[in-house]
Specification:
The radius of gyration is 21 Å and the shape is elongated. It has 191 residues and is mainly alpha-helical. Helices cover 64% and strands 0% of the residues.
């Protein structure tokens, strides 16, 4: 990250949301799966953790019973995910974690809020965000840079227009795909 720039250089909510989606659960900054609203989270007994989890979370051992149940659950879940990762995945997670910690607190808070907004989206919209991110990542670097700059320099109204155009284009592609799937294929009789 460029420390000379106080604003986030990426500018695209989807890109940042996905970065947070990978980083936050791995390191248990917050629990990505909220508890049912009617029940309070239950505490996780230290003895219920595997020996590997206890070793990984040893710095919390003395204070474990004083941690809020939600934090205990997040740490237990994060340690379980960590132990299930390959060495390559752990290396990437460490790299993303270091990037996360190099961000100023206000940017981390903005990312947390975006993550929460993403989590509150219906599954179809989450899938659309992920698909848009994959498309963005497939663009040539110069085109990605241009799009980031356009987004970064846009007014809130212009950003809303960009988002609306994107939704319209996505709907048009979905309609075209549906029409294409309904067309009879050569050599086959229509259904």
């Amino acid at each position: 990250m460029n420390n000379n720039n106080k604003r986030c250089p990426l500018g695209l909510s989807a890109l940042l949301t996905l970065l947070l989606a990978v980083v936050a659960p791995v390191f248990a900054q917050q629990d990505p799966t909220p508890a049912p609203p009617a029940s309070a989270p239950s505490s996780v007994p230290w003895s219920s953790l595997s020996p590997q989890q206890q070793k990984l979370l040893s710095r919390f051992g003395d204070q474990w019973n004083n941690l809020p149940p939600q934090r205990q659950q997040a740490l237990a879940h994060g340690s379980q995910r960590w132990l299930g990762m390959s060495p390559e995945e752990r290396g990437l997670a460490r790299q993303r974690f270091n990037q996360w910690h190099s961000l100023p607190p206000d940017q981390r808070e903005a990312l947390r809020q975006r993550w929460q907004r993403f989590q509150s989206l219906p599954p179809g919209e989450q899938a659309a965000v992920r698909q848009n991110y994959r498309r963005f990542e497939q663009l040539p670097p110069e085109q990605r840079k241009t799009l980031r700059e356009r987004w970064h320099n846009a007014t809130p109204e212009e950003r809303q227009e960009m988002l609306q155009r994107g939704r319209e284009m996505r709907m048009k592609r979905q309609q075209q795909h549906a029409q294409h799937m309904q067309m009879p294929r050569p050599g086959r009789s229509p259904r």
